[in-house]
Amino acid sequence: MITVSHLSKRFANNEVLKEINLNIEQGEVVAIIGPSGSGKSTLLRCLNLLEKPNTGTIQIGTAMLDAKHYSNKEETHLRKQSAMVFQHYNLFKNKTALENITYPLIVGQKIDKKEAKQLGLSLLERVGMLPYATQYPITLSGGQQQRVAIARALAVRPKVLLFDEPTSALDPERVHEVLQVMLQLAKEHITMIIVTHEMEFAKYVADRVIFMADGVIVEQGPAKSIIDNPQNEITQRFLRQLTDEIDFEI
Fold first, then answer.
1. pLDDT tens digits, 209-219
2. What single DSSP character describes residue 56?
3. CA dihedral defined by 42, 47, 49, 51, rounded to 10 degrees?
4. Could you tell me the sign of the dihedral formed by the alpha carbons of 186, 154, 217, 40, in that order?
5. Is 15 helix (H, G, I), strand (E, B) or coil?
6. Is this entry keyworded Methyltransferase (predicted)?
7. Rounded distance, CA 194 to CA 27, Å?
8. What's the pLDDT tens digit per position in 3-42?
9. From residue 68, how far is each of 41, 65, 71, 122, 161 by CA, in Å?
10. Edge to edge, what strands does the sheet with 29-33 contain?
11. Phi, psi (5° rounding) for residue 125?
12. What is the pTM for the complete model shown?
């Protein structure tokens, strides 16, 4: 359902993505892991053109785009295939939880206000946030805001949900509530690509784990096998660093 071919991205002289090739099936949950600066988030942002790749092709569903030359129509069509859930929620501060969902539907998709409200309420219920429909983001915890952001992403009925480290800005006690919603989405066979540092979540929820380093895909395979028994030395070293106890003296 998603095909990425020879995708590259440079920032000045820094090549952040180097000839990435990737295929993702409909309903598949793919977790992307790797050290900071490996290109994980950039890859995600290239898929919906928040970052414009320099070379390569991206296909999501029926939308296909060649990075070197594409029209505004092709760009719009590709962007409509996905929805992003950001690390810092990106909610409208001056709108309620419900309005954060309905506003893009009414303004961007010209959906009737009544219909948008019904959809918004049903999605808030789906992520366990219906009692907070009339509250503003400032009154919500980080985990609650992120659940509203997930509902907003679902509202546009995307072919794929893109999650860019959705729990990294949360207090530890709030991480679980967001991961539970994502687990439920995985059970519903919604296609998801998740950049994450939550290894246990990736291991048990993702169908496949991709390990990236220095702008390339180093290793990929079934989630449990990659995390429990990585074959590449770089992957082994990265996962070992996450589990090793820090030895220090004061």
1. 999 999 999 99
2. E
3. 10
4. negative
5. strand
6. no
7. 13
8. 999 999 999 999 999 999 999 999 999 999 999 999 999 9
9. 21, 9, 10, 41, 25
10. 82-85, 160-164, 192-195, 29-33, 208-213, 216-222
11. -65, -40
12. 0.92
Q: Are 95 and 148 in contact (CB under 8 A)?
A: no
Q: Which positions ≥6 away from 225 have C-beta within 8 Å?
A: none
List 163's β-bridge partners, or say none. 85, 194
**Two tokens, residue 70:** 């594409």
Q: Kind of pairing, strands 29-33 and 55-60?
A: unpaired
Q: Which residues contact 142 (CB under 8 A, 6 or more apart)?
A: 89, 169, 170, 171, 174
3-class DSSP state of 64: strand
Measure the CA–CA gap between 48 and 51, rounded to whole angstroms: 8
Which residues have CB under 8 Å from 45's CB, separation 6+?
Answer: 51, 84, 164
Distance, in Å, from the CA atom of 36 to the CA atom of 56, rounded to the nearest integer, reads 23
DSSP 115-183: HHHHHHHHHHHHTT-GGGTT--GGGS-HHHHHHHHHHHHHHT--SEEEEESTTTTS-HHHHHHHHHHHH
Instruction: Mention every residue, 6+ apart, whose C-beta is less than 8 A from residue 226.
Output: 209, 211, 219, 220, 235
Q: Residues with Cβ < 8 Å from 28, sequence gap 6 or more? A: 1, 191, 207, 208
